[in-house]
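Action item from last week, closing it out:
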Amino acid sequence: MRPSRSKLGLIRLTVVLLLISAVALVCFVKGFVAAEPAGRIIRTALYPLQRAFAVAYEGIAARVQLIRDYERILAENELLRQQVQEMRLLLVKYDEVAAENERLRALHDYSEQISYETIAARVIARDPHGWRDHIVIDKGTANGIAKNDAVLGSHGLIGRVVSASLNSSVVMLISDPQSSLSGRVQDSRSLVVVEGTDRTDGLIRFDCLESGDKVQVGDLVITSGLGGVFPPGLPIGEVYSVEKDFYGIADTGLITPASNLLSIESVLVIIGAGV
């Protein structure tokens, strides 16, 4: 804790009074220097008082110096604390830039694997009316984006554009209960309907269109290209669980989306691929 201003003022006043007293005492004694041996007697008699004044002065001077050192150390500590905070902020910014570069690199690598024209966009908001299932991106009609354009994450389909303005667009994710699209099991080529759900874990549902079709856990589901919105061959996700439908005839179950729909920060929009 820092000494109060009143305490510092009292210390300074005491030092001044001691100095004045010491000077007065020296002047007093000097008047007796020539009067020996009386001068020696007086100096001998006053020595304890002079010594007491000297010790007191040294003690007070040491305390004052200690207070100054304490204040200097506090100032240095505050400066170091600010520098450490600045370094932490720089490290956070560096980590954010590195993470964004990694996301953009993944999107770039994925865009080279598909034969469609794409444009990269950044997620700037979640739609307040559908926070979990709608995102807003920073590209719009000025960039060639139109309603129903397919939107990809770094590992596959995440949704479609449902509204496009000049410089931004709203994307409905495939997890939205309103979302429905035609899919195909990559290995068996079975056609399925993929629908969003209101589940909090992000899983989506599939239903086989034919009763004889077999689907296994781990199967990759891709877009079929039917319906005129999503181009074929885009990964939707992997089958998480399989069961029979209400009538015990066709397979139904859950799919884990290829991209984590709750942590999307950057996307690719396929331009003009809809039929």
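Closing note: The mean pLDDT is 78.
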